Amino acid sequence: MGKERGQAYLAERLVSCGRVRVRASTPATGPAESDKSVRPTMKKDKCVRPRKGAAVAKESVGLSGMMFPNPVVLVSCGQGEEANIITVSWAGTACGDPWMVTVAVRSATHSHGLLMKYREFVANVPTVKIMKAVELCGSRSGRGCNKWQESGLHADESVAIRTPGIAECPVSMECRVRHILDLGLHTLFVGEVVGTRRDREWQMAPTVPVYVEGRYYAVGPAVLG
Predict the structure, then answer these.
(1) What predicted TM-score, i.e. pTM, was given to this entire model?
(2) Are 153 and 116 in contact (CB under 8 A)?
(3) Are 15 and 28 in contact, with CB atoms under 8 Å apart?
(4) Which domains does the chain have, with CATH numbers?
(5) Which residues contact 224 (CB under 8 A, 6 or more apart)?
(6) How much is the pLDDT for 225?
């Protein structure tokens, strides 16, 4: 009887580890001693449980393509009196040779029309010092206001295109649109970087903002690698 009880205990442990297959009619707690129809099948590898703290409980939350985090850029577009600014958090580097960056803009925005008209833009990297301007340029439409005046930002001259950059941003990437992809709610503009201007004294201080699930956060000073 002791041997049979030992086998039943072993089978129960294997079931709990997910290393045996049990028929649907058999309770998951293990077979009865007299039940000869259940024959646990062991795999060759060992039953290894996750280390404490390694297992992460996840549940389905529907569909989401949100990254953690998203970079924040102030995109200047248009020329002359039409020049405008829009805050974009769906942006990124797309290619390294030639350098390409992407910005996703809703078709309903004023800036979308300017991007389609002039086919160039400047991706300006803001710092946390101008967060009020970042929020304003992402919540107001250029159709009804002059964002330069409202935000207190100033245009500076680009070297390779006619669209101006933003003087308060330490990095400005001047881009000519090479590809336009209508994805649905947003249009993806792929711009080739034809000029880059950077404040040589800026070394991530002040730091830059990032966007996560509807809120802005500051990137910490720690260097991980």
Answers:
(1) 0.76
(2) no
(3) yes
(4) 1-48 (no CATH), 70-213 (2.30.110.10)
(5) none
(6) 83
